[in-house]
Amino acid sequence: MSGGAALAVRPARPSDVADLILLVRELAEYERALEQAIATEADFTRDLFGPSPRVHALVAEVDGAVIGYAIYFLNYSTWLGKHGIFLEDLYVRQTHRGLGAGTALLRALAQECVDKGYGRFEWSVLDWNEPALGFYRSLDAFPLDEWTVQRLTGDALGKLASGRPTAGGTA
């Protein structure tokens, strides 16, 4: 690394929440969806550090400053009969790319999978994000071309939950 900057990856701490929110908003802006990034510091504090956290975070820091993060949670493969990690977000500040922070964050999560006997490490990436796609290919990650992500939010989620008719005419 140039200038003797020391890169470190560690579990996030409650004192990192403000940095995490800022970085999440930077990622949302890059992904052209800033208006959707409505999570608050209270949300992150509750979900990452509450009594039963179900979501986890690692941070990458250079000389004590948080410059990137990985937020993830466990999933489960019924076919493998094993847990896995789903990476919700991976982000490194533009000004700190090329230092190995993204690779270090992914390496730490891959090591957690290996250490705990998890069967998979998965994430989604926008199909237009060529720099990310190239980075992931360089690590031997591969796309699941036959699968598409499906999502319910807002009114559609409420309709299904309540049994109200959906756009398809059935509940």
Descriptive overview:
- This protein has 171 residues and is of the alpha+beta class.
- The protein has one domain: Gcn5-related N-acetyltransferase (GNAT) (Aminopeptidase, 3-Layer(aba) Sandwich).
- Helices cover 33% and strands 23% of the residues.
- The chain has five helices and five strands; from the N terminus they run βααβββαβαα.
- A five-stranded mixed beta sheet has the order 1-2-3-4-5, with helices on both faces.
- It starts with 6 loop residues before the first strand and ends in a 9-residue tail after the last helix.
Provide the helix percentage. 25-40%
Shape descriptor: globular
Spans where pLDDT lies below 50 across 5 or more residues = none
CATH topology: Aminopeptidase
Tell me what portion of residues adopts beta-strand conformation.
15-25%
N to C succession of SSEs: EHHEEEHEHH
- SS content category: alpha+beta
| Number of domains as seen in the coordinates | 1
> Separation of termini?
56 Å
Please identify the top-level CATH class.
Alpha Beta
Q: Work out the number of β strands.
A: 5
Question: On the 0-100 scale, what is the average pLDDT?
Answer: 92
